[in-house]
Amino acid sequence: MTLEQEKEELRNSTLRLEHEVTKWKNRVAELNITAHARALLNTSQQCTSDREGVLLFNSVVHQLQVCSNQQWIGSYKLPYKGSSGNIAYSCSDVAANPENTANGRYYVYVNWVPANVYCDLTRRVSFGGDGLTNEAAGVSCNSIKRYWLRERVQSSVRWINPSMGQNGAFRVYCDFESFGGGWTLLYSSRDDSSGDNNMQKGNHRTAHITSLDPWNANKRFAYTEFKAIDASVESYAEVMLSGYQDYRNKHLVQMYFSKTARTGLSFTQFIDWGIGRNVGDSDRCSSKGSYFGIEKSSEKPIGLTWENYAFIAGAISSGCAWSKEVWNEIDAEGGHLLAPKDWARAESHSGRSPSAGACHNVGIFHILVR
Prior knowledge:
The chain is α+β, with helices and mostly antiparallel strands. Helix content is 17%, strand content 30%. It contains 6 helices and 19 strands. It has helices spanning 3-30, 35-38, 91-96, 141-148, 223-231, 267-274, and strands at 55-58, 63-68, 71-76, 104-110, 113-120, 125-126, 156-160, 170-175, 183-190, 200-202, 220-222, 238-244, 252-258, 290-295, 300-307, 310-318, 321-328, 336-337, 364-369. The two termini are 40 Å apart.
């Protein structure tokens, strides 16, 4: 860290401390705590024998503690209303106030900045904000849609933070329109002439997840964010495969299905097993290499399997055989993309034509979750 960076960090720390002390001095005055305690609201005081009975604010646990036998013991947790004038540190703090009885929107500090977030008081967790700023990041595009968008809105780029951790927010494309909306983009890649699309693990910094048109064959799946969403309070339940057969006309093809396949294998397990693996014919039909489900918009059975670092979606003919491919990035001719409702037009393994869904190096492929 350079000297200037150290100075900037020190200035920021000082501002945060001043803000903290001022806020709690005001809170103590509101609660009519003694003037003696008000004068000692900082986190650097030592509990010595001459300070027996003194109150001090502990900024680590956000509580008032009393000096007793040269130790800071006990605590008094100040009630937070979660209002713009009485901002909480977390939804757990909001839930601890008996005056707060309903789930809804409350003000809490996010990275030391007041933010309006949706709190589930029963679970004592935050589902984040409307995603318009870093501090107001939602857990996912679905949480933004569910808790903040009362009217139909256009799809757009928003901030999300699946872990709700400090400095963990990032920008992502949210589809608020397809099949009820709330879809988070995790993969967007153009087809190219290299044959195998070679899908690999990535994150929001390496994957193109802010646009349905990434402008190149990046081939990175935002695996880190995918796992974070699955582990979050807003764990995803559905998967959407989509794309353009030809990015020049932007005719979007979409299909979606449940996270859990009929065989009991989840899409998460399917991704974990196959991504980054050079799957051949000998193991692509293993219990972890094949995913079966019902495509919800067409009510048709759909199968997914891995092959050469990428996966295929298509009609299940028998066993592990795919006879009609509708989402396939690995053809040397340039991928394949066609909705299940058009399976009658889908290619057989002996044909590759645009009329049957072949992309010929002008396709774009997407993976989204909700």
